[in-house]
Every structure is written in structure tokens, then in C-alpha cells.
Design brief:
This protein has three helices and eleven strands; from the N terminus they run βαββαβαβββββββ. The chain has 112 residues and is of the alpha+beta class. The protein is globular and about 40 Å long. It starts with a strand and ends with a strand.
């Protein structure tokens, strides 16, 4: 099954070492934020990546079966379960990488 993760392109390039990706949330919160529903991506992108940094916001599609870190589905208090990966993401688990589009100060999925 596929899950999705959003990341700034510069962070993806700088935080990928030894075939593993370790975003800041792994240190600050203990897990990597993901979602299973593509429709939630735009909401999350515009809420948490609302600044225009002049760079690409990437959508990573991950194959759950290729993750070796623990994966838990948890509700952060919003009445919805989100996949949280409790460890680094294997770069090999990324099956697709695409850029979101910025239109009128809002992020849009690549196919929109």
C-alpha cells in the first residue's frame, strides 16, 4: 500500500544520507509524518508548507512494504488516522517523486 510524504526539495537532498532520510520531525517528534489519502496532501501542504521558499515542494510516494521502521496509524487529535513512521525512511521505499505546483499562493497536486 502507498503512503505519501511532503518535503522541500533542498531538505530531501540534504537529509538523505546512506540511503536513509531523516527529517527534523524524527528528532523533534520521534516520527516522520505521512498520509495515505492524496486528497489530504493539499490540505497539509497549504497548512504546514504555506511559505513560498522559491523551491519545489516534493511529493514522495512510499511503498509501506519497503519500510523497515515501525509504521503506526495514529490520530493526532483531529479525528483522522495518519501514518507515522518511527524511524528513518529508506530511499529505496520511494516509488515516485513529483513536484507540487504553486498556483495563486496555494499548492496543487501535480495532476490538478
Amino acid at each position: 500500500m502507498a503512503i505519501y510524504h511532503l518535503v522541500w526539495e533542498s531538505d530531501w537532498k540534504s537529509l538523505t544520507k546512506d540511503g536513509l532520510y531523516r527529517p527534523a520531525s524524527l528528532t523533534t517528534e520521534g516520527f516522520v509524518h505521512c498520509t495515505r489519502e492524496p486528497e489530504k496532501l493539499v490540505e497539509v501542504a497549504n497548512l504546514f508548507f504555506n511559505e513560498d521558499r522559491g523551491e519545489q515542494l516534493l511529493l514522495l510516494t512510499l511503498d509501506e512494504s519497503k519500510l523497515t521502521s515501525e509504521l503506526k496509524y495514529e490520530d493526532p487529535g483531529v479525528g483522522h488516522l495518519f501514518p507515522h513512521v518511527y524511524g528513518p525512511l529508506e530511499v529505496a521505499a520511494v516509488t515516485k517523486q513529483s513536484a507540487l505546483r504553486r498556483v495563486e499562493n496555494e499548492w496543487k497536486l501535480p495532476q490538478q
